[in-house]
Amino acid sequence: MKGSDYEKKISDYDWHDLSQLWKSIESGNTPGWESGKAFEYFILRAFQLEGAEVTWPYSVRVNGEELEQIDGVVYSDGIACLIECKDTAKSVNIEPIAKLRNQLQRRPATAIGSVFSRSGFTEPAFTLAQFITPQTVLLWSGEEIYYALENKCFRQGLFKKYRFCIERGITYYNIKVEDLS
To answer: Which partner from 3, 18, 29, 37 sits 20 to 30 angstroms from 54, CA to CA?
Structure first.
């Protein structure tokens, strides 16, 4: 299936459909989706349903060669955020964070990144995310994703994480700590 096919498929999803898809993602059973694709499109569609502008997954090519594969971009409330999604059973280690940091180094300094992990992150991943300035990479765990889905607050969660990072210099703020509604 091509990216445009996934875009067409997900564009019909409402919040109820996303809730069902999330259950399928959590169980590792997403028929009709290539590995990891359901998670990527789920995240972007949730932001889109809340009114954010999204760019669907794409490749950056230079001289015909693929330089980067981007899982998506979210534009919301003055924030431009590159998205990296990891749909794995194990906690995510440093590699996706390092990859996103390198992608951010090729972009304007105002761009940030977010790594969404269904299973959370390892301690080294948390540590790396804290010390990769000036690039900002915000981390989202599965429990936060579920919370944002249930409360329809992906955009507000992103803004809250970004603001907390600006004020405290911490890239992992759990959006469940404070009611965002």
So the answer is: 29
Specify the number of domains making up the chain: 1
Strands 112-117 and 79-86: parallel
Residue 90's domain comprises 3-177
Judge contact between 18 and 149, C-beta under 8 A: yes
Q: How far is CA 83 from CA 63, 168, 178, in A?
A: 24, 22, 23
Residue 73, classed as helix, strand or coil, is strand
Structure tokens at 158: 């992103």
pLDDT in tens, 86-102: 999 999 999 999 999 99
- Whether this prediction's pTM lies above 0.85 is answered by yes
CA-based nearest residue to 114, from 94, 139, 144: 139
